[in-house]
Design brief:
Length: 367
């Protein structure tokens, strides 16, 4: 459930073929992103660089921006109003942007190949659920490409307007999928879905929209939805992402939790928080960070993006979280002689799924 940039030239134009996500436990592992900046003087020779390392200058800038935001948070009398109107503000967002926010996530196949195991002709009966579906950015690519007659895709969103958009899509087929309104942070799983019936849950730029007080409810619901051995694929905002640092005054609701100009909310995570959230109930198969340096070569502007990515599997019956199950799809390779584990997962090539704060100027990415 993520807003999208309406800039005519977006970061989506910058295509990637390899990963720029790196396992947080192997920061010195061999990088799989193909665009590495080794000569700072060459920074403006292309539009994007993978595995962007931060120096003290960037770290200090980020700390200064957070300190600035803390001086002028959202007025206390408005904080509860923003929380109470969360669903209404998402409805307004989708009403305003009805024909603008569909993003064909070509990167899904690269990033989360497990999803596309579900669509193979001989995969058998499979259930996938896109949580925070927006316009059906995962649902429709899967259904369009699927050769599996036994695949069923559920799509749910906090916003009733978003669900209406999905149902009005010409590709929507009630025989192959079902869209409905549901709050991930609610007290229970939706009545449209049986407990422990999902093979894969898709959680892309969704958890960040929830109030931190409701994260535990979300984790419990995810656990109830998944089959034993089922998988969550996750992508969301990382701490000190450019979008966070650009927020102006009166946008900070609480630590690292903001309200955009359109009233929608967003949180910026650290990897340790993701471990704490998912690690108590799920086996963490991937915990990665994607640091990307986007540049405007015309204006000589540098833009640092940070996203977190993970894959979390529900243990089989009798197994404890953290113990790899026999259904595990490995995303790393262990080298000999105790060498470090290298994350070989593939990564996002359409960061336009991660918008700037509403009202912020979007720097052009033209060459």
């Amino acid at each position: 459930m993520e807003p999208t940039s309406s800039s005519p030239t977006t970061i989506e134009d910058i295509k990637k073929r390899e990963s720029s996500s790196r396992d947080v436990n192997s920061p010195t592992s061999v990088p799989f992103g193909g665009r590495l900046l080794v000569d700072e003087s060459a920074v403006f020779e292309q539009n994007a660089w993978d595995h962007a390392t931060w120096g003290e200058e960037q770290e200090q800038h980020a700390r200064n921006e957070i300190a600035r935001q803390n001086l002028n948070p959202v007025p206390q009398e408005l904080v509860e109003t923003y929380h109470a109107e969360a669903a209404e503000n998402w409805n307004k967002f989708y009403t305003k942007n009805e024909n603008k926010f569909f993003k064909d996530r070509h990167w899904l196949r690269i990033e989360f190949p497990e999803l596309f195991h579900m669509i193979e002709a001989e995969a058998g009966e499979k259930n996938v659920m896109e949580i925070g579906c927006g316009a059906g950015n995962t649902m429709f690519p899967l259904l369009i490409e699927s050769k599996n007659s036994k695949l069923f895709v559920y799509a749910c969103d906090f916003s009733s307007t978003a669900v209406d958009v999905v149902k009005n899509n010409p590709e929507y087929d009630p025989k192959r999928g079902k869209a409905f309104v549901w709050d991930l942070a609610g007290d229970d799983i939706p009545p449209e879905v049986e407990p422990e019936s999902m093979d894969v849950l898709v959680l892309i730029f969704v958890l960040s929209a929830l109030h931190p007080d409701r994260w535990e409810h979300a984790m419990n619901n995810l656990y109830k939805l998944l089959k034993p051995g089922g998988l969550i694929v996750f992508r969301d905002y990382g701490r000190y992402d450019m979008a966070q640092l650009r927020f102006k005054k009166n946008r900070l609701l609480s630590d690292n939790f903001y309200v955009r100009g359109d009233g929608t909310r967003v949180y910026f995570f650290e990897s340790d928080e993701i471990v704490k959230l998912f690690g108590s109930q799920f086996t963490i198969e991937q915990n990665a960070v994607d640091r990307r340096l986007i540049v405007n070569r015309l204006r000589k502007v540098k833009m640092y993006r940070v996203w977190l990515q993970g894959k979390f599997r529900k243990p089989l019956a009798g197994q404890a979280p953290g113990v790899p199950s026999e259904t595990t799809v490995r995303t790393d390779e262990s080298t000999q002689d105790g060498a470090e584990t290298i994350d070989t997962s593939l990564s996002l090539d359409t960061p336009s799924d991660s918008p700037l704060p509403s009202g912020a100027a979007t720097p052009s990415l033209e060459a």
